[in-house]
Every structure is written in C-alpha cells, then in structure tokens.
Amino acid sequence: MISEVYAAFRSAGVDEENARKAAEALSNDALATKADIARIERELLVIKWMLGVVVAATVIPLLKPLLG
Q1: 15 lies in which domain range?
Q2: Does the pTM exceed 0.85?
Q3: CA 52, CA 61: separation in Å to the nearest integer?
C-alpha cells in the first residue's frame, strides 16, 4: 500500500476501509516488478535489432549506385 495515497484519501474524507483498498489497488497496478522490466528490456533488444535490419535494408540499396 502507498501510505501517501492512503493519507491523501483519508484527508479528503474517504472512510478508512475504502482508502486502504484504493491505496492497495493503486500500489498493485502502478508498480512494475523486476520481471516486468526484464521482459521489456528483452523486447527492446529485439526491436533494436529489427530496426537495424530495416535501416540496413533501406540504406544499402541507396548506397550501392553511389559506391559501385
């Protein structure tokens, strides 16, 4: 639970149970785990390689007439 969110809900007049539930729900949805970050890093690596291949496949034909 994010205590700052809980405190903000309580100061806004939300009852204790609803403030706790809302703060817990936000903390569960808002935070990425190490596994989430690792998965995103792997996906970014694949995207970088794909972009490199696309750039090379585009640039090489354009440079061929100039160099050869």
Answers
A1: 1-31
A2: no
A3: 15
d(CA 61, CA 68): 11
Cβ atoms of residues 19 and 6 within 8 Å:
yes
CB distance 25 to 47 below 8 Å: no
pLDDT, tens digit only, all 68 positions of the chain: 578 888 998 999 999 999 988 888 887 666 778 999 999 999 999 999 999 999 999 999 999 998 87
User: Are the beta carbons of 10 and 16 closer than 8 angstroms?
Assistant: yes
**Any idea which residue has 């204790």 for tokens?**
16
Asked whether the beta carbons of 26 and 6 are under 8 A apart, the reply is no
Considering the domain architecture, whether residues 52 and 65 belong to the same structural domain is answered as yes
